[in-house]
Amino acid sequence: MHRKKKIGFFLLAIFYAFFGYIIAVNVFNIPDGVFNKPDPDFFQRFPIFYPSYNGKIGTSNQVIIEVNVSASGRLVEGKTATISAVGSASPPLANNITDVSLTFEGAEPAYNTSYTSGLLLYSPNFGRVDLVPNNNCPTHPTGVTLDLILCGSATNVIWPIVGAYAAFLSIDLNNGKSLNETLSGYKISVLSISFAQTEQSNRINLAFSAALVSFGVLEGVNIVHELTEEKRKVVQTVSSLPKRDR
Question: Whole-angstrom Cα distance, residue 157 to residue 187?
Fold first, then answer.
């Protein structure tokens, strides 16, 4: 009986230690690399073309902007993200550019849909980066560079609403006109905080289920061990009896 109690206490200690570990890494959000892996940093780099990409690079009147969007962890609503852009342009358009602005506009409905009116609420325009002609720009495109460098600085933005955002390009010319184009093929997806929280809750449920299964397995092993011991004792007792008492 003493051995049985020791095994029982040992199994309970293992269960509570494992359960406490799960609570620590999930509820208190302590990263451990197993149950609560830290989210990788968000980084998205893509080129945008004006006019729309036709399979050729380096043609006349072409503008190529390289956009970088980064954030610590997942890009969710309310998270600060850094947007930077640098580009280049080819003549004769390059000779007439005064500045270029890049913004992101709501390309798809956000999750907050107005069911009462039947209308879809789209994300607002957000995240503006301005680029100006400057061949002495400290940064250059990592890809193809055309005749004129379009230099842009990094800006920090906070997307307040969930949704998908497409790049909108506006090119101002020295004659007062503007060339505008929405590039719907390149989108930044902003997730909801509740989505991330649901994933964490699923991890907790999975870990808790694993703890219960582990405890059940250990307890099952203990029961099998006890039954084996009881059977062994019975056999031993019967074997020790005189033949006439069996």
Answer: 16
CA 240-245-246 angle, to 5 degrees, is 70
Measured from the Cβ of residue 233, the count of other Cβ atoms closer than 10 Å reads 10
Structure token digits, residue 63:
């503008």
pLDDT tens digits along 92-138:
988 999 999 888 876 554 444 333 344 444 445 566 788 888 888 88
Q: Considering its fold, how many domains does the chain have in total?
A: 2
| 145 and 125 together in one domain | yes
Cα separations in angstroms, 7 against 47, 189, 215, 219, 224: 63, 52, 13, 9, 12
CA distances for 52 relative to 47, 89, 185, angstroms: 11, 14, 10
Enter the pTM of the model: 0.60
Q: Residue 86 belongs to what domain range?
A: 42-191
